[in-house]
UniProtKB/TrEMBL annotation:
The keyword NAD does not apply. Coiled coil: none annotated. This is ABC-F family ATP-binding cassette domain-containing protein. Gene3D superfamilies: P-loop containing nucleotide triphosphate hydrolases. It comes from the Bacteria. The keyword rRNA processing does not apply. Keywords: ATP-binding, Nucleotide-binding, Repeat. Residues 3-253, 351-548 form the ABC transporter domain. One of its GO terms (molecular function) is ATP binding.
């Protein structure tokens, strides 16, 4: 198998997404794809899979292709068993083709090479082991295994894990993954990493997971435009090597941009001085030497024009470098507060579903004898496998989940910013509800509804999370990553004393993940983070740590 993208380009009406992308993926290639939200990472995967037609360049592929997208919108009534059956049917078809080819083979005149290819294909797919392989993948990824479970009743993460397990079991020649670790815990990520390293075909993985890039990627394609406007392929494996090379490139870009801005300012000053001199400095008294006055005027005009042409010819068109996250200066406390009093305190929390469905755990969180108190400027890192109640604990701290047992006390006037694991604005239903509302409109509507204090508001445009163009686009038109950026901006809007972040790196670009991690370690506000991101856990290892069983 092989896949080649040559001078690949794609545009939506009025907006270029990709330009000049060239890569080759062969067996053993594990290409990591990174880039800012909205840079076209998911679009790139769709082009490679043949789901979109490029507006420029071409994609040449041979072999089978499997794509695992970030979002799965199930058909009405579709179940876990339907996805599993589709996978097994495809594998069993390969087995049936082998049986038919062997039964019909003419030992005297038959094409032995064709029979060997069919056998090799069946051996590669390990068709005789398909049922066990699917079951192992579902188990190791923590996916629901009940074939009767409707996909519509599963969470976004549960649906993703079911589909990922099926795709891994299919053993396609080319595997395309879009943010595969977003919904996996540590043991599931370890399983996925082992599968990808052992993959006999090619792998293209869009990810913000820095540890996964270190463990898996043989090369990294950065879809962010460089100073010449083109994506860059970093051929040396490892995230740290990529980070160093990109930082060096960004440093040179910013230096060059500053130099060109200075050159442009100098040109304007010289031209102003030249034309000012033309009108005032050299003029003789009126009424005298008229012919000399006119001749010198022409000389000065020509000299100024030549200077302008020279400086403009030497100038280099350098686009504006990408903006960095401008994290706001958040408060630790309000005036008059006692620094020894917690912002929020929870004791002995227990949360259960009002109605337990079959095969769905009724208890979401149960921590008897546990006290979680978040002081001003406090820090807390929450970890644990999927299903242990990390998201529920953060909802309890935020006051969004009712307690069946225990208590929650918060300081009067405390402002809390929340970024949930499955943010409402990320769902298709939310996009339909918001209609054509833009990110800027929603911020203004929150202010008009009295949900924001006018004296404590951060301007969304000042954060560097969304461009002015994106702020004016309907939320439903933004990419998943851009909508995630808006959720982060929304959590910061009201200048919170406490930030509660559930899997904050999900769907964010890798550059923003680095910037956000640095900001969380230095902000005066209190911060609680629940995450499976291994690199983020390492960087926050000195924080107080709560591991849920």
């Amino acid at each position: 198998m092989h896949l080649v993208a040559d001078a690949l380009a794609f545009s939506y009406p009025g907006r270029d997404v990709l330009r000049g992308v060239g890569v080759a993926v062969n067996p053993g290639t594990r290409l990591g794809v990174v880039g800012e939200n909205g840079s076209g990472k998911s679009t790139f995967l769709h082009l490679l899979a043949g789901l979109l037609d490029p507006t420029g360049g071409e994609v040449r592929r041979s072999g089978t292709v499997a794509l695992v997208e970030q979002e799965l919108r199930p058909a009405s009534g579709q179940t876990v068993g339907d996805l599993v059956a589709a996978t097994l049917d495809g594998l069993r078809q390969a087995s049936a083709e082998l049986d038919a080819a062997a039964a019909a083979f003419d030992h005297e005149a038959g094409d032995l090479a064709e029979l060997q290819r069919t056998l090799a294909r069946a051996e590669h797919l390990a068709v005789w082991d398909a049922d066990r392989r699917v079951d192992v993948a579902l188990t190791r990824l923590g996916a629901p295994r009940d074939p009767a479970r409707p996909l519509a009743e599963l969470s976004v993460g549960e649906r993703y894990r079911v589909r990922l397990a099926c795709r891994l079991a299919e053993r396609a020649d080319l595997l395309l993954l879009d943010e595969p670790t977003n919904h996996l815990d540590t043991s599931a990520i370890d399983f996925l990493t082992g599968e990808l390293v052992a993959w006999r075909g090619g792998v293209v993985v869009v990810t913000h997971d820095r540890e996964l890039l270190d463990d898996v990627a043989t090369a990294i394609l950065d879809l962010d435009p460089s100073w010449d406007g083109r994506p860059v392929l970093y051929g040396q494996p490892g995230y740290l090597s990529y980070r160093f090379a990109k930082n060096q490139a960004l440093h040179r870009w910013r230096q060059r941009y500053r130099a060109e801005r200075k050159r442009a300012a100098r040109l304007a000053e010289v031209l102003d001085a030249s034309y000012e001199g033309l009108s005032d400095e050299w003029r003789p008294p009126k009424g005298s030497q008229k012919h000399r006055r006119a001749t010198r005027a022409r000389i000065h005009v020509k000299a100024a024009d030549r200077l302008a042409q020279k400086l403009e010819a030497e100038a280099i068109e350098v686009p504006v470098p990408p903006p960095a996250l401008a994290f706001p200066d958040l408060p630790a406390m309000s005036p008059g507060w006692d620094p020894g009093e917690p912002l929020v305190e929870v004791r002995n929390p227990r949360v259960a579903l009002a109605e337990a469905r079959k095969s769905v755990p009724s208890v979401l969180l149960d921590l008897p004898g546990t006290r979680v108190a978040i002081p001003p400027s406090g820090r807390l890192l929450v970890t644990g496998p999927n299903g242990t109640g990390k998201s529920t604990l953060l909802r309890v701290l935020a006051g969004e989940a009712g307690l069946g047992r225990g208590s929650r006390v918060s300081r009067e006037g405390v402002r809390i910013g929340v970024v949930g694991q499955e943010s409402p604005a990320l769902t298709p239903a939310a996009a339909r509800r918001t209609g054509f509302e833009t990110a800027a409109d929603e911020a203004l509507s929150l202010l008009a509804a009295g949900e924001l204090d006018p004296d404590h508001v951060v301007a969304v445009a000042s954060l560097g999370l969304l461009s002015e163009e994106d702020l004016d686009r309907p939320l439903g038109e933004l990419s998943v990553g851009q909508r995630r950026r808006f959720e982060l901006a929304r959590a910061l809007l009201h200048v919170p004393h406490l930030l509660l972040l559930d899997e904050p790196t999900n769907h964010l670009s890798i550059d923003l993940v680095d910037e956000l991690t640095r900001a969380l370690t230095t902000t005066p506000a209190a911060v609680v983070v629940a995450t499976h991101d291994r690199r983020m856990r390492e960087e926050l290892a000195d924080w107080p740590h709560l591991t849920l069983p």
